[in-house]
Write a structure and sequence with these properties.
661 residues, alpha+beta
C-alpha cells in the first residue's frame, strides 16, 4: 500500500476573445497503489424511464497550469497551502460562514490516507476503474472502518493523476475542489474514469462529454448506489468537480440516485449550445464545432498513461479495456445549429447533440431529484460562466451560488490571491447534507460573490437573489468614438470599417470600432448581465459581431474579465427561452432561423455579454470594443465592409447593470 502526501497545484484557465472552447488537458501516469481488491459487480439498478434520458456533456475551456508539482516544490507556503488552509481553530470557537469554518468539524484522522483502486461493474456489465481514498487513524495508521459519507468525482481526465507541463499531480489533491483534502475530516473519496477512457472498459463518445450518451446514462447512478452499500459508507453520497466533472454531476442528478444527497458542480454548462457555439458562430463546414481541431486529446495518448487497478498486476485487464476503446468518437463533428444532428455520433438518441447535451433539457428530472446543489463559477472564465447562474435561477432544489475572481476552475489561484479556500465551502456544504451538522450553510444568504476593485475587506459579498434587487439597467448610447448617457438626435450617423480576420486579444482595439466614456467622476459598480442593442449593416449577407466591455485606467491599461458577447447576424431572431434566462435576449439558433442580411440595409442585433461584478474607479473609463471576426468566422475575400449605426433612427446602445448602494 503506498501512502500519498499532499500536492499543491494552481490551475489557470480562460477563454480569450478569439479562442474557441479549447480542451488541451495532458494526462500522465502516476504511482499506482500496489494492493487492491477484486472486481465488484453491482446489481441492476431501477431508474425511472423519464429520469434516465440520455444526454451529452460539453467540452471544457482550455486549462493551463500556474504551478503544479509532485514533490511539493510549488512556491506556495505548505503551512498555508491547500492541505492546511482548512479553517481549523480552537474547538471553543464556532464559526461557519463562507471561507471560514471552525468548531463544527475537526480533522479527526491522519493527514495521510489509504489509496486503493478496483473495478466496479455497472448494470450493463461494463467495468469502470475507481480510485478510493480512505482515512487513517492518527495514532495507529490503521484504515478507518467506520461508516462515513462518500464524495466522488466522475471524470474523463484520468482518475489517478495529471501531467500539466511535465508536473504530475494526484487527481484527488490537484484537481479543482481537492476533495481528498477532506478525507481527514471524516470522508471517503472516490474518483472514477468515464467508460471508454483510461482504465475503464467500454466505448466513449465525445471524450469529456461521454457521460451523456445512452450507454453511459446510468453509470453515475450505478456508481453512487454501489458506494452507498459499501461497509465503509454511511449511505449518503455527494459529488464534486469542475468543468466536465461538474457537468457529470448534473447528468447524475437527471437520473436521481436515491443516495445522492448533494453535489458541488463548478464551471459547467446549463445550456450546451451557447457554450459550445457562442453566439451561433460555428466554424466553416468541415470543422468540428465541439472542440477546436488539434486541441482534442487523442484516445491513444490517454491509453498510454492509463493506470491499472491494483489487482491487475500484469495489466491484462487494462489491455482488455484499451481494446474496447477502439473506434472512440472524439467529438460530435459538425453541428453548427442547436437542432443539428451529429454527423459522427452513431447513437441515434443523442444525434441532436446540443439539445440532448443540455442539462436544462432535463430540468424537471433534476428538480424532482431534490438533490442539493452548490453551483460555482469564476468571473474571468468564458461561457461556462453562464451555467452557475442559470442553474441557480432554474432549479427548485436546495441551492447556493458562489462566484470567485479567477479563470476557469482556477480556485487554487483564488486561494493564493485572496485567501479564499473553496474546499471550506465544500466541507460546510457536505457536512450539512451528508453528516447532518447544523452549521447554518443553508440559512445564510444563498449567493456569495467577489467584486473586483471593491474597497479592501469588502470584495466578497452576499445576496439573497440574482440579479441583485438594487440593479438599475442603465443605457449608454454609441456616439462618435464615445459612449453617452444621451440618446442620439442626429440622422445618418454610422461608423464603417473593413472586417479584420486577424483580430486577437492584443490588437482588438485597432482591428475594430471603439466607444469610450469620459473619465468617470465617481466609482461605478457593475454587477450582473450587460446587454447590447446594435444596428448594423454589411456588404455581405452575414457577419459575426463581438462586443467586449473594458475598464480603462488613466494610463491606458485595460481589463475585461471576459465580459464579452457575440452573435452571428443571420441567427439574430429572438425567441422565448425554454427556461428562466433572466430576461436576457435569447436566440433559438435553429437552422430554420437563418435569415441573411440584406447588403447595406440596417439590421438590429440584440445579445448579452457574460456577467461580471466590478467597480470601475473614478478617473477610469468604460470602453466598448466591437470586432467582426473570431476564430470560427469564415474568411471572405474581399473582406466585407461593415457599419455600426448610431443615429436617432438607429440608436445603438449597451445596457449595464449598475448597482446603487
Amino acid at each position: 500500500m503506498k501512502r500519498y502526501g499532499l500536492f499543491v497545484s494552481i490551475i489557470l484557465c480562460g477563454l480569450s476573445l478569439v479562442s474557441g472552447c479549447d480542451e488541451d488537458k495532458k494526462q500522465n501516469e502516476g504511482d499506482g497503489a500496489q494492493a487492491g481488491t477484486d472486481s465488484t459487480v453491482l446489481p441492476d439498478s431501477a431508474v425511472s424511464e423519464d429520469a434516465a434520458i440520455a444526454d451529452v456533456a460539453l467540452p471544457d475551456s482550455d486549462m493551463s497550469p500556474d504551478v503544479a508539482t509532485a514533490d511539493g516544490s510549488s512556491g506556495v507556503d505548505t503551512e498555508a497551502g491547500i492541505a492546511d488552509a482548512t479553517g481549523d481553530g480552537p474547538a471553543a470557537t464556532k464559526v461557519s460562514k463562507p471561507g471560514e469554518y471552525n468548531g463544527y468539524s475537526e480533522a479527526i484522522y491522519s493527514d495521510e490516507y489509504e489509496l486503493t483502486s478496483q473495478y466496479v461493474t455497472v448494470s450493463d456489465g461494463t467495468r469502470l476503474a475507481l480510485d478510493l481514498y480512505r482515512p487513517k487513524d492518527k495514532t495507529t495508521g490503521e484504515v478507518i472502518t467506520d461508516k462515513l459519507p462518500v464524495l466522488w468525482m466522475h471524470t474523463p481526465y484520468n482518475r489517478r493523476n495529471f501531467d500539466y507541463g511535465g508536473n504530475t499531480i494526484l487527481t484527488g489533491i490537484g484537481y479543482p475542489g481537492s476533495a481528498a483534502t477532506l478525507v481527514k475530516y471524516g470522508y471517503v473519496v472516490a474518483i472514477v474514469d468515464f467508460r471508454g477512457l483510461y482504465a475503464s472498459f467500454g466505448h466513449n463518445v465525445a471524450y469529456n462529454r461521454g457521460e451523456w450518451i445512452s450507454a453511459a446514462q446510468k453509470d453515475a447512478y450505478d456508481i453512487t448506489e454501489w458506494l452507498a452499500i459499501q461497509p465503509w459508507s454511511n449511505g449518503k453520497i455527494g459529488m464534486w468537480g469542475c468543468s466536465a466533472t461538474g457537468g457529470s454531476q448534473l447528468q447524475a442528478a437527471t437520473t436521481a440516485p436515491p443516495s445522492l444527497k448533494a453535489i458541488f458542480p463548478m464551471s459547467c454548462e446549463f445550456d450546451a449550445y451557447p457554450f459550445g457555439v457562442p453566439g451561433g458562430m460555428a466554424p466553416p463546414a468541415g470543422t468540428p464545432t465541439s472542440v477546436p481541431p488539434g486541441e482534442q486529446t487523442t484516445q491513444a495518448s490517454r491509453d498510454a498513461v492509463a493506470q491499472p487497478v491494483d489487482a491487475d498486476t500484469d495489466k491484462t485487464l487494462l489491455n482488455q479495456a484499451i481494446a474496447q476503446h477502439a473506434g472512440t468518437i472524439e467529438n460530435a463533428g459538425y453541428v453548427p445549429f442547436r437542432d443539428s444532428l451529429s454527423d459522427t455520433v452513431t447513437d441515434e438518441a443523442v444525434k441532436q447533440w446540443w439539445i440532448k447535451s443540455s442539462p436544462h433539457t432535463y430540468l424537471e428530472a433534476i428538480k424532482t431529484s431534490g438533490i442539493a446543489i452548490y453551483a460555482a463559477a469564476n468571473w474571468d472564465e468564458a461561457a461556462t460562466k453562464y451555467g452557475a447562474f442559470f442553474t441557480y435561477n432554474n432549479v427548485t432544489n436546495p441551492v447556493k451560488l458562489i462566484v470567485g475572481p479567477g479563470t476557469h476552475c482556477a480556485w487554487f489561484t483564488v486561494q493564493r490571491e485572496t485567501g479564499f479556500d473553496i474546499t471550506i465551502e465544500e466541507r460546510r456544504f457536505f457536512d450539512y447534507w451528508l453528516k447532518g451538522i447544523e452549521n447554518g450553510v443553508m440559512t445564510e444568504d444563498p449567493i456569495y460573490y467577489y467584486t473586483y476593485n471593491a474597497p479592501s475587506g469588502s470584495e466578497w459579498r452576499s445576496a439573497k437573489q440574482w440579479p441583485l434587487p438594487n440593479e438599475t439597467r442603465t443605457k449608454y448610447y454609441l456616439a462618435l468614438g464615445a459612449l453617452s448617457a444621451s440618446a442620439p438626435t442626429e440622422a445618418d450617423q454610422k461608423d464603417e470599417t473593413t472586417v479584420a480576420y486577424d483580430v486577437t486579444a492584443d490588437n482588438m482595439t485597432t482591428k475594430g470600432l471603439v466607444y469610450v466614456t469620459e473619465p468617470l467622476t465617481a466609482d461605478l459598480e457593475i454587477t450582473g448581465h450587460p446587454t447590447i442593442d446594435l444596428w448594423v449593416s454589411s456588404s455581405a449577407t452575414d457577419g459575426d459581431f463581438v462586443a467586449t466591455l473594458q475598464d480603462v485606467a488613466p494610463d491606458g491599461t485595460a481589463v475585461s474579465y471576459n465580459v464579452h458577447g457575440r452573435l452571428r447576424a443571420s441567427l439574430r431572431k429572438l425567441e422565448e427561452a425554454p427556461y428562466n434566462n433572466l430576461g436576457l435576449p435569447w436566440h433559438r439558433f435553429y437552422e430554420a432561423d437563418v435569415t441573411p442580411l440584406v447588403p447595406g440595409e440596417p439590421t438590429q442585433l440584440a445579445f448579452d455579454l457574460l456577467p461580471i461584478s466590478m467597480i470601475i474607479k473614478s478617473g477610469h473609463s468604460i470602453r466598448l470594443v466591437i470586432n467582426f471576426a473570431a476564430t470560427a468566422t469564415p474568411v471572405l475575400t474581399p473582406a466585407p465592409t461593415v457599419a455600426i449605426y448610431r443615429d436617432a433612427t438607429h440608436a445603438s446602445s449597451i445596457t449595464l447593470p449598475v448597482i446603487n448602494n
